[in-house]
Each structure stands twice: as structure tokens, then as C-alpha cells.
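Researcher: For the record, we're logging two predictions in this thread. I'll number them. Prediction 1 follows.
Model: Prediction 1, sequence and structure:
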Amino acid sequence: MSEENTSSATERRPDWAAFIIAVFLFAVAGVMAWDASHLKTIAQYDRIGPSTVPEVVAFGLFCLGVWTVAEAWRGEFPERERQEVAPVIWIVAGLAGQMLLLRVAGFSIATGVLFALTARGFGKRKLWISLPLGIVFSFVVWAIFSQLLQLTLPAGPLEHLFF
């Protein structure tokens, strides 16, 4: 039985990816705590002010960071599956395309590109179907928000063609 315990102890190694996540949690907690400390407090009779909630969230993120470090050190995170990079690249390309096209091509076309490339990232191979479908869906969303709700969304040539 003692051999069994030593073999399982030698198999466990610190999880370095979890340590990176913990560092990220500590960084976000630090930025939030620093920002909350610079909020102006309004003279009030209560101790709860505009910085209370960010301080609580920063404390929670700090606690999650400590917990993540402890779990990573013990090596108790479950084994992760192999990460597929190609779908992430398609989705990030869609987001970048939307940001670049939003002012030039308008909401419908830019969001249609995002729709098509995200669908491609999730496995839909036929861009010639998903791109026009995404543009139509996005145009309907634009029309609802812009015309019915009177909210301002970037209009492009397609939107100017109809409205």
C-alpha cells in the first residue's frame, strides 16, 4: 500500500497552465482593487459606497487565484483535452473582420461576416450559405434596433438601400 501512495505522488506534477490562470486572476484583482481605491467617496452616513462592489469582486478574484494556485500545486486539475486552434482562429478572424468592417460596410455586412466565420469555426463548411444568411439575420436585427427601437447602429450601403 505504501508503494501505491508513492507512485501516485510521483505522477502528480504542478499544473503550469493553472498557474498562468492564477497570475491572470491576481492581475485582474489587483487592477480592480487599485481602481476601486481611486473612486471618489461621496460623504454619506453608510460605509457602502461606489467602491464597495469592485472591492468585493477584487477580493473574490484574489481568493479564486489563491485557490487556483493551491489546486495547481497539488496537480488536482482534471486532464484537459487537446485544444483545437483552427476554430479559435476562425472566430477571432470573424471578430476582427467585424471590427474592421463595421464603419465601412455597416452593421449588417460586418456582423454577417462575423456570423459566417463563427459558423465556420463551429464546423459549418459552406461559407457561401452562411455569409448571406448571416447578413440577412444581421439586417433584421439592425432594422429592429434601428427602426423600431430607435437605437443607433452603424449603417452601411445595405441599410441605406432600404431605409
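Researcher: Logged. Prediction 2.
Model: Prediction 2, sequence and structure:
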Amino acid sequence: MAVRRRRRQGSEPLWLDDEAGRLVRPYTVSNGRTRPTAHFDLLTMVMATGKRPVTCQGPDHMQVLGLCGGPVSVAEVAAHIRLPAVVTKVLLADLVDCGALTARAPVQDPHGPSPHTDRALLEAVLHGLRQRL
């Protein structure tokens, strides 16, 4: 089993195993927390405020913040950092709590889904997300 060290742009090195993947377990990234302090839907949009966080300065927090220069969904952030959505939500909530991110809930159409919604595409995305969790 070969262990290698790899750097991502603007982040601390990650310990990876060729077969097992990331060696730092997700619950370690969130300090054992499984519930975010704010509610996030997978479609919630987050964006950096430009405020430098004082309390949220772990490498994973900084990596998440680096992805949020423009509006990005929770699902996209989770996919980029390759962590389960629940862990991503905890990190995002930390950044919202310290003022480094803003979050906007997805807009709900009172008349139901758009007639242009591609159900097959949405189901494929959901299937892919479930495989990552």
C-alpha cells in the first residue's frame, strides 16, 4: 500500500492512499460534529463575503472558502472537496458563523417544478451524490 502526499492549489497537503483515498476521516475534518449550526439544502448557494475568518482557519475551511469566490452550491463544494455532504455542511456553517460566507436558500417556485426541468438529469445527479456519501 503506497502512501503519497499531494498538494492542491492553495491548500495544505492531503494524505492520500492509492487504494483507500483520503486517510483523514471525515468526522476528523468536522471535529466529530455531524450537525451544522445552520440549515443547508444541497442546492443552497454559498459565496465568500471577503471577510477574513478569525476562528475558522483549518486547511479544509480555507479550501472551502477558496471555492466560494462566486456563488456555488453546497453539492458542488462537497464534490470538489470530496467529502460527504454532511461534513461539507458543517464546514460551511462554521464559515457562515464567522462571517466569511453568506448562504442563500434555493428559490422555491410556488407553482411546482419548471416545465423545463430534466427529471432524468436530476435523478442522475442524485444517484452520483448518493454514491459519494
